[in-house]
């Protein structure tokens, strides 16, 4: 089977910026408290009427333009998201309609912050078997719609955005050379979205409490570090490489302290890690997709480089890909 490579990338983030100084007016917190514990200075927030599918569509068009592929020729669309416009139709189908990709199969997957790598690995299988000739993979989140803005432990962490890539089969040694997907459902309660139960037969009220994220940060920290480090180890071994062969690591942007701990555990210099959490916060599935785009734009990734993509998220799920650029 041929290798599958990332032909192009694209991204989009909302124009509205929410700084730490703005959050100081909403909850009991300070810029220093947020920076010390997370490394975040600001994040992007979707504007009124700006839906997840709008972010996804703009990121998709950006990636397709760079790939010089017409939407009419797209054969598969996979969107990774945990914050869709609604339960259905899927964000992927809304993107398909918006860009006019009438030939494409389209569906969403839910793997929280690990969604982009889960989606890329899924798309790779379709391309390697020859079922499709190209795939548009998108990670898009309007996760601020799931945040309790009275909870300072979570509201300071998250932001909105979308990243996308076009995958195609290639000859030669470049491309996605290995992947690793893992789940630890037994720890799922450490980060979840809470909702109120409702009786579907109760016609007296159609009101339902807005869902919101609940997170046990201290318990998550150690599991996140160990899971991400293990994911890189496994993926590097499957690629028949050594950790020293990795030129750049693009991690999920959840917390700068987590990234530092992963770098220390892997004994890879932190200078090899691409970090943009200070400007965007945690955009869930979109974080690693947007970070990959910016790493390429800033020439942190060059032709021939070995790149490790690694992530961790609610579920609990983790993933890693090794890409020969």
Which secondary structure elements does this structure contain, and how are they paired or packed?
Blueprint: E1 3-12, E2 17-19, H1 20-23, H2 31-38, E3 42-44, H3 52-67, E4 76-80, H4 91-99, E5 105-109, H5 115-128, E6 135-141, H6 152-155, E7 161-170, E8 175-183, E9 191-194, E10 212-215, H7 217-238, E11 248-251, H8 256-266, H9 277-280, H10 285-297, E12 306-313, E13 317-324
Parallel strand pairs: 4-5, 4-6, 11-12
Antiparallel strand pairs: 1-7, 2-3, 6-7, 8-13, 9-10, 12-13
Helix pairs in contact: 3-4, 7-8
Description:
The strands form four sheets. A five-stranded mixed β-sheet has the order 1-7-6-4-5, sandwiched between helices. A four-stranded mixed β-sheet has the order 8-13-12-11, with helices on both faces. The chain has helices spanning 20-23, 31-38, 52-67, 91-99, 115-128, 152-155, 217-238, 256-266, 277-280, 285-297, and strands at 3-12, 17-19, 42-44, 76-80, 105-109, 135-141, 161-170, 175-183, 191-194, 212-215, 248-251, 306-313, 317-324. Helix 3 packs across helix 4 (91-99) and helix 7 packs across helix 8 (256-266). It is built from ten helices and 13 strands.
Provide keyphrases for this structure.
325 residues, alpha/beta, Peroxisomal Thiolase, Chain A, domain 1, 5-stranded mixed sheet, 4-stranded mixed sheet, 10 helices, 13 strands, globular
């Amino acid at each position: 089977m041929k290798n599958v490579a990332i032909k192009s990338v694209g991204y989009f983030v909302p124009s509205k910026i929410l700084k730490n100084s703005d959050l100081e007016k909403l909850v009991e917190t300070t810029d220093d408290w947020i920076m010390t514990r997370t490394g975040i200075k600001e994040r992007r927030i979707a504007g009124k009427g700006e839906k997840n599918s709008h972010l996804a569509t703009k990121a998709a068009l950006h990636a397709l333009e760079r790939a010089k592929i017409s939407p009419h020729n797209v054969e598969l669309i996979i969107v990774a998201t945990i914050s869709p416009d609604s339960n259905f139709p899927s964000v992927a189908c809304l993107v398909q309609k918006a860009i006019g990709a009438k030939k494409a199969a389209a569906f969403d997957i839910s793997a929280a912050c690990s969604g982009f790598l889960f989606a890329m690995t899924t798309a790779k299988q379709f391309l390697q078997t020859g079922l499709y000739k190209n795939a548009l993979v998108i990670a898009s989140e309007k996760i601020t719609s799931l945040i309790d803005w009275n909870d300072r432990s979570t509201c300071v962490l998250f932001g909105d955005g979308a990243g996308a890539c076009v995958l195609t089969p290639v000859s030669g040694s470049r491309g996605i050379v290995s992947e690793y997907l893992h789940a630890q459902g037994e720890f799922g309660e450490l980060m979840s979205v809470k909702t109120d139960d409702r009786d579907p037969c109760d016609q007296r009220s159609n009101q339902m409490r807005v869902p919101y994220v609940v997170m046990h940060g201290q318990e998550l920290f150690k599991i996140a570090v160990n899971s991400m480090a293990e994911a890189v180890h496994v993926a590097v071994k499957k690629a028949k490489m050594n950790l020293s062969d990795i030129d750049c690591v693009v991690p999920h942007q959840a917390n700068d302290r987590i990234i530092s701990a992963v770098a220390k555990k892997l004994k890879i210099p932190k200078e090899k890690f691409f970090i943009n959490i200070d400007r965007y916060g945690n955009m869930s599935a979109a974080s690693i997709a947007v970070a990959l785009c910016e790493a390429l734009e800033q020439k942190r990734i060059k032709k021939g480089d070995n790149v490790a993509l690694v992530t961790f998220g609610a579920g609990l799920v983790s993933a890693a890909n090794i890409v020969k650029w």
